[in-house]
Every structure is written in C-alpha cells, then in structure tokens.
C-alpha cells in the first residue's frame, strides 16, 4: 500500500515491494521498503539487499546519494580506488558507509548468501558504469 492511502501524520507499516520496482545492479537484488514511491519519503530510501554466493557486480556509483549498509548475514567486499585495487570487507553486525559519487564494485566472494539492510539518501540512485 502506498503513502496516499495513509494518514501521513502517523506511523504506518509498509510491506516490502517487488525488486522490479527499484533500480538494480547485476548480482544483487534490492528490495524497496520505505521509499518515495511507497510512503512519499523525500530524503530516504530504505530496503534490503542480497547477493548470491560467489557473485560480483559491475562498477557503479550512487550519484549524490550517501549509502549506509548493515550486514545481517554473510560477508561483502566493496572494491574502490584506482583500478578497484583497494577493498573493505564487512560481516554480520558491521556497518558500511559509501560516500556519494565513489565508484565501487560489490562482491560476495563466499559460498554463503549475503543479506543486509540498505539505506540511501536522498534516494536509490544507481549509476552502472558497465563491465
């Protein structure tokens, strides 16, 4: 149910939306929850993200958006820097912050599913740079 069906002066529950309703990157599935489309949010995109085992996405960035991630399950590597030679790795209970406009690649190099909560502001901006 979308924001126009709710009293916007009170909290309400939002069900996860189909992944097809938001921008995706190959190898990852983003499921929107609190967004401009679902609740009329003007400065927040909140959802979940999963990456299949041994999956590596393409280079991309998130434009002006700041990205915060909380890892629930599995591990994720985020490659960045010149020729994507640098990386950080996070596991369950860790937070990741990706500043605006930083070109990066996300990879789940392990045999376990990666799952996290993803917040982006002002919206889910994804600019895929190609392979």
Please provide a written account of the structure.
With 131 residues, this protein is mainly β. The protein has one domain: Jelly Rolls. The chain has 1 helix and 11 strands, in the order βαββββββββββ. A hairpin with a 5-residue loop joins strand 6 and strand 7 (86-90).
Descriptive keywords:
1 helix, 131 residues, 4-stranded antiparallel beta sheet, mainly beta, 5-stranded antiparallel beta sheet, 11 strands, Jelly Rolls
Write the layout of secondary structure elements.
Blueprint: E1 28-34, H1 36-39, E2 45-51, E3 55-56, E4 60-61, E5 66-73, E6 76-80, E7 86-90, E8 95-98, E9 104-108, E10 114-121, E11 127-128
Antiparallel strand pairs: 1-2, 2-10, 3-9, 4-11, 5-8, 5-10, 6-7, 6-9
Helix content: under 10%
Oligomer: single chain
Give the name of the CATH superfamily: Jelly Rolls
Summarize the biggest pleated sheet. 5 strands, antiparallel
Radius of gyration: 15 Å
From the N-terminal CA to the C-terminal CA, the straight-line distance is 36 Å
Residue-averaged pLDDT, rounded? Answer: 87
What's the arrangement of strands in the largest beta sheet?
1-2-10-5-8
């Amino acid at each position: 149910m979308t924001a126009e069906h709710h009293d916007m002066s009170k909290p309400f529950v939002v069900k996860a939306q189909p992944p097809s309703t938001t921008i995706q990157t190959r190898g990852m599935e983003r499921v929107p929850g609190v967004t401009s489309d679902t609740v009329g949010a003007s400065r927040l995109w909140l959802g979940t993200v999963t990456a299949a085992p041994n999956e590596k996405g393409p280079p991309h960035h998130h434009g002006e958006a700041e990205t915060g991630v909380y890892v629930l399950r599995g591990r994720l590597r985020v490659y960045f820097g010149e020729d994507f030679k640098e990386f950080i790795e996070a596991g369950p209970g860790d937070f990741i912050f990706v500043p605006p406009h930083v070109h990066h690649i996300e990879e789940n190099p392990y045999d376990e599913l990666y799952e996290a909560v993803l917040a982006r502001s002002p919206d889910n901006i994804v600019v895929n740079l190609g392979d």
